[in-house]
């Protein structure tokens, strides 16, 4: 089928180090044929059998995000305190890669997939055109230091020896000074101008230093998610669309679960399973959800709308084996345990 006649966005990719390269090439072709807004079909990973009924696309998103957000890849950093991702200022030519991440977010929204990364909420405000100087969520320690600077006695501020200049990493381990104002290296920070210093520092971190990375990222996102419809969402709602919610409502998941290989909702091990799961503390419930689905996040419509739907299958007669899962298909393989206590013990070993 010719690309412009195919009703789907079709991707065929290789695993490992070729995944980003293959995706970049095919996304670039899709831009030229205006195919990005078609339903996504990752036909298969090259060299593997299988048809994409939802699980392959899910695995594709998971693997691609892990590669792009790996610190060794050089695109993003993670704050050591908040663990939130942010753009790494750099002279590396990675405009296409950052545009790809923006497109990836748009594709995830279009195809109802949750992405496994954590940006601060300021990113979603920036995507929607706002300029918000809110550093506390992204880098709490830096924000705390700047807040203390604003509250210091004037004589103590003058004694710090600060100037309107900051160090910026421009490569792996390479740092150079950047003036916040022309001649900033010669301009001392005082009690009279410290507010200006803080405002410029925050603007540097959230805007100026990452403009070469954020601009193509935003351009990629707006290829799929521009226009009046974007205005229907608040930044927090946009974040929910991309990354899902952390609020679990397991009753929704239980009500929508499908059963296979001899199990029904009334099977004894199934009833034990849900009794054990509902009794777990929230942190353990999230761990179990991650084990089964590969994510501890909830789609914006709730756990009843997992894609593919959650399935519990009978994995043979009673044994000492642990439950297992096909995370790409949200599929739990649950042995037919002899008692609720055995099921509880085996399930605990998964966390």
Automatic annotation (TrEMBL):
Q: Which residues form the active site?
A: 328 (glycyl thioester intermediate)
Q: Name one GO biological process term.
A: protein polyubiquitination
**PANTHER family xrefs:** HECT-TYPE E3 UBIQUITIN TRANSFERASE, UBIQUITIN-PROTEIN LIGASE E3C
* Domain HECT: residue ranges: 32-346
Q: Which CDD domains match?
A: HECTc
What GO molecular function annotation could you give as one example from this UniProt entry? Answer: ubiquitin protein ligase activity
Q: Which domain of life is it from?
A: Eukaryota
What is the name listed in the Swiss-Prot or TrEMBL entry for this protein? HECT-type E3 ubiquitin transferase
């Amino acid at each position: 089928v010719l690309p412009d006649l195919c009703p789907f966005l079709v991707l065929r990719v290789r695993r490992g180090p070729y995944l980003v390269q293959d995706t970049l090439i095919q996304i670039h072709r899709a831009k030229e044929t205006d195919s990005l807004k078609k339903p996504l079909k990752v036909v298969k990973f090259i060299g593997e059998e299988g048809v994409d009924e939802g699980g392959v696309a899910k695995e594709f998103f998971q693997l691609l995000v892990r590669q792009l957000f790996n610190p060794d890849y050089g695109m993003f950093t993670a704050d050591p305190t908040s663990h939130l991702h942010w753009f790494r200022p750099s002279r590396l030519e990675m405009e296409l890669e950052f545009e790809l991440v923006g497109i990836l977010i748009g594709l995830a929204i279009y195809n109802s997939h949750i992405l496994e990364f954590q940006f601060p909420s300021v990113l979603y405000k920036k995507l929607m055109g706002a300029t918000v100087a809110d550093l506390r969520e992204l880098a709490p320690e830096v924000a705390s230091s700047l807040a203390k600077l604003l509250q210091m006695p004037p004589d103590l501020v003058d004694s710090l020896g600060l100037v309107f200049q900051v160090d910026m990493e421009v490569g792996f381990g390479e740092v150079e000074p950047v003036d916040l104002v022309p001649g900033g290296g010669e301009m001392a920070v005082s009690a009279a101008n410290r507010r200006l210093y803080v405002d410029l520092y925050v603007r540097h971190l959230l805007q100026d230093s990452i403009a070469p990375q954020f601009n193509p990222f935003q351009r990629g996102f707006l290829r799929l998610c521009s226009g009046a419809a974007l205005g229907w969402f608040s930044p927090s709602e946009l974040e929910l669309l991309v990354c899902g919610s952390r609020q679990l409502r397991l009753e929704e998941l239980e009500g929508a679960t499908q059963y296979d290989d001899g199990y029904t909702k009334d099977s004894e091990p199934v009833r034990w399973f849900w009794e054990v799961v509902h009794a777990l503390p929230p942190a353990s419930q999230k761990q179990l959800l991650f084990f089964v689905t590969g994510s501890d996040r909830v789609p914006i419509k709730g756990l009843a709308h997992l894609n593919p739907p959650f399935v519990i299958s009978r994995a043979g007669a009673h044994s000492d084996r642990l439950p297992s899962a096909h995370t790409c298909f949200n599929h739990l393989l649950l042995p037919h345990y002899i008692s609720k206590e055995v099921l509880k013990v085996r399930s605990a070993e998964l966390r």
